[in-house]
Amino acid sequence: MSGSPGAATGVSEVARSGAASAALVQQDPAAELVAGMLAEPAGRSSPSVYETGRLVSLAPWLARHEERIAWLVDRQRPDGAWGGPEGYALVPTLSATEALLAVLDRGDHGGVGRERLARAVHDGLTALYDRLAGPAAPPPPDLPATDLIVPALTELLAAHLDTLGDRPVDVLARWRGARPLPLPAGMDRARLDGVRLLHAAGRPLPEKLAHALEVLGPPARRAAGFGPVGPGTVGASPAATAAWLGAAPDRDEPGRAYLEDLVRQYGGPVPAASPIAVFERSWVLGTLSRAGVPVRVPAALTDELRDALGPAGAPTGPGLPADADTTSATLYALARLGRPVDPTVLRPYDTGEHFCTWPGEDGASVTTNAHVLDALGHLLPYGGPAVSWLDSAVRRLTGWLLDRQETHGAWTDRWHASPYYATCCAALALADHGRTGHARHAVERAARWVVDTQRPDGSWGRWGGSAEETAYAVQTLVAAGHRPGSPLAAAIGRGAAWLSTADVADDGPELWHDKDLYRPTLIVRATVHAARRLARDGGRDA
Fold first, then answer.
1. What would the 3-class secondary structure string for 314-371 be?
2. What angle do CA 20, 24, 26 make, to 5 degrees?
3. Exposure pattern of 95-104 as b/e (b: 16+ CB <10 Å)?
4. Dist. CA 260–CA 449, nearest whole Å
5. What is the pTM of this model?
6. Most confident listed range (23-32, 63-72, 495-504)
7. Rounded distance between C-alpha atoms, residue 84 and residue 97, angstroms
8. N or C, fewer C-beta in 10 Å, the chain?
9. Cα(526)–Cα(467) distance, rounded to whole angstroms?
């Protein structure tokens, strides 16, 4: 049976330690990934401009405050903005600009010169007013809580601009008396006002709001119904945790200890979310196993994945609700590693047509449903009494994904900026579990789109060639199957050649969606390693 333990996946019960393990890591990228997950049990991702800006604004009492200020200034783009291209720049630019204005107000910039800060603020305001806000601006992408964060930050900016005349900094003279920053087209304050009114009335707020609790403003401090969990985090978010703590807390408070540990780990700035261990481990182990990469997985890792599954499934991190995406990836990884779990934990997410990421979700996610199809299709032989539901769900998911393929052959999704990720997720799930000729045709259409969008140097990417997106493209082409000498085979060869020399460093593009874009470091490395293996072998361990 596919995914059984033993030679097919190279799974062992216990990882080696000491000198033997170190030697293995040096020779084996998969072993290095496992070692990385063990070394950083909270998971690892790129630092976030948005979250770091919120700490600068909300928690000047936190260690390494000056390092965060300098990091923000250094990360500013030549055009004055922060963050990704297009509408992806709005949220990080709002956060960084407001944070540096707060620093100028307080005067706690330390060794970062006041004139340098003022210039950064001036350039940030210029980018916001001239290009990033208002009806003519690029539409903000579908990021978590954007419709709450943007009006909350524009409100804070307006308060700073109201007092700008009190600052003797000439470079900011242009902004004295500036009009309030307009909201993007189609966005208003209604949802933010509604959330704040609910909280003021003592009504319960959705659990997922914990991840963006900072939008409440000062009432977020010690907000009832929320509080530190697990390692001390509120909503797996540094910003939400700082907002809940408020003014300098006692040093032994769990929330403060969580933030202190995080800034020590990252050197000052902080990531979009932490901990992300379940998300990271399930994606890494599932990706490697699917590609047939031999990897020795300590029992501790699989045990922790199994323990993460509760009655509602698995959450990405403490303080967040369980979701179908993380749950399905966890089920899939465990099954591939010979530890199958009852898949009916996903049943509450079944809407009858597709699977919601969480109950009450606005819209629907292609990649969540592709991951659910992977999990349920792979676990169908374990179905037992649930086999009829599993079979029905696999058929319905196949049809739902087929209906969402775009005319040119790609898929897009709300959890990633690149269509190569969504296309890879959907194509792999349909190739493995679609069970219809229409599914095979959809995978072939996706492969043709991938071939047609390859860059002259052999790479793929939305804004430029990247190792991550090239890896997704190669996996999609391999899933479609190919004959020697075919256009698909030639595209795989060019992509593999480019990947063989690509640097999978921690400074690659940030493409994953949270409150701003981020890069889950080990997941990206696993994706690239899997694609290199597949391109070399010419097939998948299905």
1. ECCCCCCCCEHHHHHHHHHHHHHCCCCCCHHHHHHHECCCCECCCCCCCCCCHHHHHH
2. 120
3. bbbbbbbbbb
4. 46
5. 0.92
6. 63-72
7. 15
8. N
9. 11
Per residue in 353-379, pLDDT tens?
999 999 888 889 999 999 999 999 999
Extract the tokens encoding 158. 């307006």
Give the residue among 110, 100, 117, 118 at the shortest CA–CA distance from 66. 110
Distance of CA 397 to the CA centre of its chain: 23
Cβ contact 535:527 at 8 Å:
no
Q: Is 254 strand, coil or helix?
A: helix
Q: Any bridge partners for residue 47, and if so which?
A: 271
Question: Which contiguous run of DSSP H or E holds residue 144?
Answer: none
Preceding peptide of 78 cis, ω within 30°: no
Q: Which residue shows structure tokens 């058929």?
A: 395
Tokens for 497, please give them.
Answer: 């050649």
Tokens of 107: 């005067």
Helix axis angle, 366-379 to 324-336, nearest 10°: 30
Distances (CA, A) of 381 to 3, 291, 341, 378, 443: 11, 21, 12, 7, 24
The Cα diameter of the chain in Å comes to: 74
pLDDT at 172: 85
- Tell me the DSSP string of 425-472: HHHHHHHHH--SHHHHHHHHHHHHHHHHT--TTS---SSS--HHHHHH
**Block residue for tokens 């002259």:** 456
Angle ∠(389,390,394) on CA atoms, nearest 5: 115
From 218, 181, 179, select the one nearest 57 (Cα to Cα): 218
518: helix, coil or strand? strand
Let me know: does 12 contact 296? Beta carbons within 8 Å: yes
Per-residue pLDDT reduced to its tens digit, 443-476:
999 999 999 999 999 999 999 999 999 999 999 9
Residues sharing a CB contact under 8 Å with residue 379, sequence separation 6 or more, in sequence order = 331, 335, 340, 343, 390
